[in-house]
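Workshop exercise sheet. Pairs work together: one partner reads the sequence aloud, the other fills in the structure field after running the prediction. Swap roles for the next sheet.
Pair: D.N. / O.F.
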Amino acid sequence: MRRTIAAATARPEADSPVQPERLRTEFAFELPRGYVDESGTVHRSGVMRLATARDELIPLRDDRVRENSAYLSVVLIARVLTRLGTIEDVHPGVVEDLFASDLAFLQDFYRRINAEGHTRAAVTCPACRENFAVDLAGGGRLGES
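Structure field:
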């Protein structure tokens, strides 16, 4: 009986086609415009982590969210951004000062990595009308490789 148990728990061979996939919990991004801090430095690259249930529940108790439900996305995005340029303490005040296009980008990025599980977006070339996918976490701007 021991041999059967040992065989059942043996590690798969290194060349086995079935390898467990590691869960990706952090995603790099590049903002379209960038956050401008008090000294005038522009911060465009950043990292967003996957949200937890707590990340989505805690903002609901925030008085700013209770007064204005639109503020929910500001608090939520601030909770899951682990870095924005050289800023590692991303708080709602930082997110409030983002350009609207950057906030919209981060809201879409949040939805993609948390609801859809990926950072790819389907796009159509305006010139040739060909459909293809781009990776929003690739770090480059559209049209760059």
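Discussion prompt: The longest helix spans residues 100-116. What would you look at next?
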